[in-house]
């Protein structure tokens, strides 16, 4: 029967609210990616430290897993094998160096200012795990074609030093020299820091870098003071 004016229709029953969905135990995708990247970096950093201490061949995936307090199968979620770990470690060291050199050059200044800044960057990085791994293990252990790629990146570092040395000679702020040989000496001397530097040693990284750079730029020979010109008679 239709409702009359004096007897309106009864209100519709209220809808029941659906129960709230339980919170997902899985993090959102960006957060999961961030966590995975952080864990992968932990694997690479630990591996680089062990490679530096024991050598590449003497370090196993079991050693890396034990250092991280995880099982060996857990590592395979982040890396394929030990060769991939080494490649990633060496690449990180190279990218850090190239990015630092580029930033130093972009900061401006004359050739000597830029050369000193680039030397500082290089010295700092070879005392860090990835840079030290680049020097102590090297690309000889990396299979092709990755080995050729790494050597190409290394040549970019060499060319950056050569250009700055050549520019300094042209400006007159550096003694005349062969830029190629001088760049080899600079990079070779700074690279060697990565082999002998010990974090628990007497000198901290800042002091090591400063002393090495000053020696390379200033030399070791003691230069006699300039001769005084005799005063002209009045």
From TrEMBL:
Keyword presence, DNA-binding: yes
SUPFAM superfamilies reported in the protein's UniProt record: Homeodomain-like, Tetracyclin repressor-like, C-terminal domain
InterPro entries per record: DNA-bd_HTH_TetR-type_CS, Homeodomain-like_sf, HTH-type_TetR-like_transc_reg, HTH_TetR, KstR2_TetR_C, Tet_transcr_reg_TetR-rel_C_sf
HTH tetR-type domain ranges (all copies): 37-97
Residue ranges: DNA binding: 60-79
Protein's name according to its UniProt entry: TetR family transcriptional regulator
Keywords: DNA-binding, Repressor, Transcription, Transcription regulation
Disordered: region residues: 1-39
Lineage: Bacteria, Pseudomonadati, Pseudomonadota, Betaproteobacteria, Burkholderiales
Alphabetical list of Pfam families matching this protein: TetR_C_24, TetR_N
Low complexity biased stretches: 1-30
The keyword GTP-binding belongs to this UniProt entry's keyword annotation: no
PANTHER family for this protein: HTH-TYPE TRANSCRIPTIONAL REGULATOR RUTR, HTH-TYPE TRANSCRIPTIONAL REPRESSOR KSTR2
Source species, domain of life: Bacteria
GO molecular function, one term: transcription cis-regulatory region binding
């Amino acid at each position: 029967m239709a409702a009359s004016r004096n007897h309106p229709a009864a209100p519709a029953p209220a809808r029941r609210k659906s129960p709230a969905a339980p919170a997902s135990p899985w993090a959102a995708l960006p957060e999961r990616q961030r966590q995975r990247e952080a864990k992968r970096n932990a694997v690479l950093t630990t591996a680089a430290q062990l490679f530096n201490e024991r050598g590449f061949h003497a370090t196993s995936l079991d050693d890396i897993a034990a250092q991280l307090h995880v099982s060996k199968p857990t590592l395979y979620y982040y890396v394929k094998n030990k060769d991939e770990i080494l490649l990633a470690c060496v690449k990180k060291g190279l990218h850090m160096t190239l990015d630092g050199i580029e930033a130093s050059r972009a900061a401006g200044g004359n050739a000597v200012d830029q050369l000193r800044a680039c030397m500082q960057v290089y010295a700092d990085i070879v005392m860090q795990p990835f840079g030290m791994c680049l020097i102590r293990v090297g690309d000889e252990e990396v299979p092709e074609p990755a080995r050729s790629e790494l050597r190409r990146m290394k040549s970019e570092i060499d060319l950056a030093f050569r250009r700055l040395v050549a520019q300094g000679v042209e400006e007159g702020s550096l003694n005349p020299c062969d830029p190629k040989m001088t760049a080899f000496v600079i990079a070779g001397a700074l690279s060697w820091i990565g082999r002998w530097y010990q974090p628990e040693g007497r000198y901290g990284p800042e002091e090591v870098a400063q002393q090495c750079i000053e020696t390379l730029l200033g030399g070791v020979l003691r230069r006699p003071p300039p001769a005084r010109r005799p005063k002209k008679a009045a």
